[in-house]
């Protein structure tokens, strides 16, 4: 598989008339280092009307420009953050991979993709780690603060099939969450409709609202501590912040959830632990592999921070029978 962009052919219009060719190329290929621009000009790889030109050449209407293949590494190299530990972390947290898809145990704090002031997310890091020219696209999303199973397609046909499974609610995702308080044993399902709104601080929040979208989440108690409960959660629908909003609706918000939680209770449980992540983890996913034609079940283990809180609770609490 080639690591190059294809040869480009451009014809100059009035919009770019009298512009220097070096400035034109720097503007068009903003992420390409200037040294590369001047190299392909100096070595005659850029041709205008089939002729070599100097960087100071001024473009004319009708000029026909041939631009050589630029390596894709040139396009992103300048913006790669020097974080070899993160590359290693992602590599060590690949749970499943074949030619069609990849399943990752996403670390908490890492966005799934770039955007909104975030230069690098999982997708961008994977392109650097695996192969810059490889197709990667998200089958679903996880909040930046949430850890756990993330499915990434390597082929568009596989992406379409898995999206279809999501729409038909055939992909089963399960989460582990530590919530405040002792969750009532009779509360096994919440169906409160959810509406996504933008707060005055431009933050997305999801609220229970009569005009919200139908939302359903199943809750199952795993362990009960003195002042907290470990829950196994299965969302039937996939609304923004659905689990977090439904936990808040039940008055048992997720521990260390800065958006929907209770800061005073978080401070108590986080005393001397210094954990800086929401205690919500996508623990497993079950789906039908579009190519292998078989069901795949992937389990993502908890990270050290989540385990640290649970171990601390076990030492301090009297675990109750479910």
TrEMBL record:
Coiled coil ranges: none
Enzyme class: isomerase
Pfam families: PseudoU_synth_2, S4
Alphabetized UniProt keyword annotations: Isomerase, RNA-binding, rRNA processing
Domain RNA-binding S4, residue spans: 19-81
One of the protein's GO biological processes: enzyme-directed rRNA pseudouridine synthesis
Catalytic activity annotation: a uridine in RNA = a pseudouridine in RNA; uridine(955/2504/2580) in 23S rRNA = pseudouridine(955/2504/2580) in 23S rRNA
Record EC number: 5.4.99.-
Any GO MF annotation of the entry: 23S rRNA pseudouridine(955/2504/2580) synthase activity
Active site, renumbered: 143
Source species, domain of life: Bacteria
InterPro entries in UniProt: PsdUridine_synth_cat_dom_sf, PsdUridine_synth_RluA-like_CS, PsdUridine_synth_RluC/D, PsdUridine_synth_RsuA/RluA, RluA_PseudoU_synthase, S4_RNA-bd, S4_RNA-bd_sf
NCBIfam families: rluA_subfam
Family: Belongs to the pseudouridine synthase RluA family.
Function text: Responsible for synthesis of pseudouridine from uracil at positions 955, 2504 and 2580 in 23S ribosomal RNA.
Protein name: Pseudouridine synthase
Classification of source organism: Bacteria, Pseudomonadati, Pseudomonadota, Gammaproteobacteria, Enterobacterales
């Amino acid at each position: 598989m080639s690591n190059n962009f294809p040869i480009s052919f451009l014809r100059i219009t009035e919009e770019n008339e009298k512009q220097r060719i070096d400035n034109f190329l720097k503007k068009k290929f903003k992420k390409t280092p200037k040294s590369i621009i001047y190299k392909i000009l100096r070595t005659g790889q850029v041709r205008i009307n089939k002729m070599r030109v100097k960087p100071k050449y001024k473009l004319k209407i009708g000029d026909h420009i041939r631009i050589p293949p630029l390596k894709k590494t040139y396009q992103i190299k300048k913006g790669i953050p020097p974080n070899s530990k993160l590359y290693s972390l992602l590599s060590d947290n690949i749970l499943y991979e074949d030619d069609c898809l990849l399943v990752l145990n996403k670390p908490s704090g890492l966005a799934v993709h770039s955007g909104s002031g975030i230069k690098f997310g999982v997708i961008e890091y994977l392109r650097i780690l695996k192969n810059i020219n490889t197709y990667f696209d998200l089958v679903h999303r996880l909040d930046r603060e949430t850890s756990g199973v993330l499915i990434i397609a390597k082929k568009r046909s596989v992406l379409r099939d898995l999206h279809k499974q999501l729409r038909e609610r055939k992909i089963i995702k399960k989460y582990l969450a530590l919530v405040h308080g002792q969750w009532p044993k009779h509360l096994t399902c919440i169906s409160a409709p959810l509406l996504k709104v933008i707060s005055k601080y431009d933050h997305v929040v999801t609220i229970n609202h009569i005009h919200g979208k139908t939302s359903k989440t199943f809750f199952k108690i795993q362990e009960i501590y003195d002042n907290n409960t470990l829950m196994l959660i299965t969302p039937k629908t996939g609304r923004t912040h659905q689990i977090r909003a439904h936990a808040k609706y039940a008055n048992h918000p997720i521990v260390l959830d800065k958006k929907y939680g209770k800061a005073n209770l978080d401070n108590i449980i986080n005393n001397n632990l210094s954990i800086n992540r929401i205690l919500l983890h996508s623990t497993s996913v079950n789906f039908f592999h579009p190519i292998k034609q078989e069901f795949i079940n992937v389990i993502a283990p908890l990270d050290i921070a989540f385990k640290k809180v649970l171990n601390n609770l076990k030492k301090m609490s009297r675990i109750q029978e479910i």
